[in-house]
């Protein structure tokens, strides 16, 4: 595969690696690092650090998912959020995530000033109104997707829905609850068992 610049700004990548991280690395290398730090035979760099920072912000904005709620948005912090693919939710660690990505892909160019500007650009690119962040209360993120508590339908995790919390269990409509059912029938009259289940179920609503 192609190698990094002599300055060692980014590690070489394998062109056969189709993972998301490899694609981001390829883009930053070809669109930012090479124009910023060209081969020795080139007389001058094609871009400066300001343009490089802006291009990096555009790449990170296209390859990852971020949101920056307004300060008056109920339930959301006044900070940059990043979407965590493995969890299916947005977490308020966008600044730290952007800094780590900058360090990973920009190397020595990831100065405090560059990272600060990068975070600021991502925030401005991803301002969202409070109304967009109001998800239906019956939509619950679980381990294997997003469960509609009304219909029982499971859909895939998606950054297109703005969730902040998840239940760390997988939805299984065929799960056996014999022991729980037996216990509830012991402590209340049989006709009240469904009511107890409903009490528990309502705690899952946001």
Helices and strands, in N-to-C order?
HHEEEHHEEEEHH
The global form is: elongated
Main β sheet profile? 4 strands, mixed
Helical amount:
25-40%
Structural class: alpha+beta
Overall mean pLDDT: 86
Distance between the termini: 49 Å
Strands of the biggest beta sheet: in what spatial order? 3-2-1-4
How many strands appear in the DSSP assignment?
7
Low-confidence stretches: 1-17
Rg from Cα: 23 Å
Topology:
Blueprint lengths: L19 H17 L12 H15 L2 E4 L11 E4 L4 E3 L2 H13 L5 H14 L1 E2 L10 E4 L2 E4 L5 E2 L22 H10 L5 H10 L4
Parallel strand pairs: 1-4
Antiparallel strand pairs: 1-2, 2-3, 5-6, 6-7
Helix pairs in contact: 1-2, 2-4, 3-4
Describe the structure concisely for a colleague.
The chain has 206 residues and is of the alpha+beta class.
What would you say this structure looks like, in words?
- Residues about 1-15 have low confidence and may be disordered.
- The protein has about 210 residues and is α+β, with helices and mostly antiparallel strands.
- Helices cover about 40% and strands about 10% of the residues.
- Helix 1 packs antiparallel against helix 2 (about 50-65) and helix 3 (about 95-105) crosses helix 4.
- Strand 2 and strand 3 (about 90) form a beta hairpin.
- The N and C termini lie far apart (about 50 Å).
């Amino acid at each position: 595969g192609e190698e990094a610049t002599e300055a060692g700004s980014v590690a070489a990548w394998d062109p056969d690696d189709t993972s998301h991280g490899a694609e981001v690395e390829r883009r930053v290398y070809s669109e930012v690092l090479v124009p910023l730090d060209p081969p020795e035979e080139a007389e001058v760099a094609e871009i400066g650090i300001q343009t490089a920072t802006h291009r990096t912000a555009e790449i990170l904005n296209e390859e990852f998912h971020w949101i920056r709620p307004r300060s008056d948005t109920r339930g959301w912090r006044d900070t940059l959020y990043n979407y965590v693919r493995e969890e299916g939710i947005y977490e308020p660690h966008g600044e730290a995530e952007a800094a780590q990505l900058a360090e990973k892909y920009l190397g020595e160019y990831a100065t405090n000033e560059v990272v600060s500007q990068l975070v600021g650009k991502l925030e401005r690119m991803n301002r969202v109104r409070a109304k967009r962040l109001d998800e239906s209360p019956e939509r619950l993120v679980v381990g294997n997707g997003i469960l509609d508590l009304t219909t029982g339908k499971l859909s895939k995790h998606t950054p297109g829905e703005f969730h902040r919390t998840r239940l760390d269990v997988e939805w299984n409509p065929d799960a056996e609850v014999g022991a729980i059912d037996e216990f509830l029938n012991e402590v209340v009259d049989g006709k009240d068992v469904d009511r107890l289940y409903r009490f528990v179920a309502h705690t899952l609503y946001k």
